[in-house]
Amino acid sequence: MNADLLPLWGLDPEITFLNNGSFGATPKVVLAAVAQVHREMEAEPVRFHARQLPGRIAVARESVAQFLGADPEGLAFVPNATTGVNAVLRSFPWKAGDGLLLADQTYNAVKQTALWVSRRYGVELQWAKLPFPLESADDMVAPWVDAMTPNTRLAVVDHVASPTAMILPVEKILAALHDLGIPVLVDGAHAPGMLPLDLQALGAEFYVGNLHKWAYAAKGAAILQVAESWREGLSPVCISHGYGQGLRAEFDWTGTMDPSPYLTAPIALDFWRKMDRELGGVAAFNHALVREGRKLVAEALGTPLPHPDDPQLYGPMAATLWPEPFSGDYRQVADLNARLYADHGIEVPFTTYDDRIWLRVSGQVFNSPADYERLADVLRGGWR
């Protein structure tokens, strides 16, 4: 781990943590801010929730919107990207026989939400099969158009695919789908803090993204951006006092909750900017870690790299091919993760795609090249 930066986090120094992509890790300065919000909340709960909270959420929203290039009028806080996806898919005006288009690399929670919609409303699920391994980002555009049918009504497009860590060319995919009149929900769970974003320029009808993965926010901070023409009729999963009063009123209050992740998000983004200045770019720093790390892992496993060394294809995460075949039983990958952690104290996920197993490494500023060398040494030593 990076001895200079690791003290800024509360991570266990005995663990080689190469899985920032799953949940993120929150810096101590943000956790301290969360604790301060808790003290203020408990000092006078009615004053905090009833009198102060609306204004404080509005201030935090402005800060987050500026960071993301979003329209604050169409920006709602949600606790995670999955909740945002649920709000969109469960509010969409479905009719029986409509088609919902997704990628076969779509995150499992989104697949399950789509399955619920399919069963509830009689919606047909349509799947774009994305190539992997692949040679170019452009290879990921045509499958979306190829998978469409005349009844397609909405597409859910991943910005960063969870199992393979591929960055999808969302601008080109949106252009192709918009040319055919299809609105798009972009699942940008990983994108804030990982990729430069200008959500208004991107032009997706809906965009969800977590702030707690790569933007250093506390767990439970995410956003839903909605284009103006789609705001009416979109409601949160939990209906409360703001129903029918507009996007912000509905989403800002969905019942008593802990709003500290939302209120401290600006502090997390200030920390991100500080890291960005000091390291000459957080994205470039993290990508450089993973670029070398994936090579070390692939060499140790004796498997080929699945895509070129192109920063348009991957950022601070990368997948490498596991040499053993996937049995079809997901307990196989869970066991690999559990044994590597138990035997060597290395936290790294194993994923599956296209009937193969992939080892997905992450890079965050608290990591160092030695972390990937340690993983490679363990793999090279015959650990299975």
Written overview of the protein:
- 41% of the residues lie in helices and 14% in strands.
- The chain is of the alpha/beta class and 384 residues long.
- Strands 2-8-7-6-5-3-4 form a seven-stranded mixed β-sheet, sandwiched between helices.
- The protein has 14 helices and twelve strands.
- Helix 8 (199-202) links the parallel strand 6 (184-187) and strand 7.
- It folds into two domains: 6-18 and 281-380, Alpha-Beta Complex (Aspartate Aminotransferase, domain 1), CATH 3.90.1150.10; 30-268, Aspartate Aminotransferase, domain 2 (3-Layer(aba) Sandwich), CATH 3.40.640.
> How do the strands of the widest beta sheet line up side by side?
2-8-7-6-5-3-4
The outline comes out as: globular
CATH class of the largest domain: Alpha Beta
* Helical content class: 40-55%
DSSP helical segment count: 14
Order of helices and strands: EHHHEHEHEHEHEHEEHHHHEHEEEH
Averaged pLDDT: 97
CATH architecture of the largest domain: 3-Layer(aba) Sandwich
In terms of DSSP E residues, the strand content is 5-15%
CATH superfamily of the largest domain: Type I PLP-dependent aspartate aminotransferase-like (Major domain)
Task: Briefly note the CATH topology name of the largest domain.
Answer: Aspartate Aminotransferase, domain 2
Largest sheet: 7 strands, mixed
Domain unit count: 2
Total number of beta strands: 12
Give the structural class. Answer: alpha/beta
Rg over CA atoms, rounded to whole Å, is: 21 Å
End-to-end Cα distance, whole Å, is: 24 Å
Low-confidence stretches: none
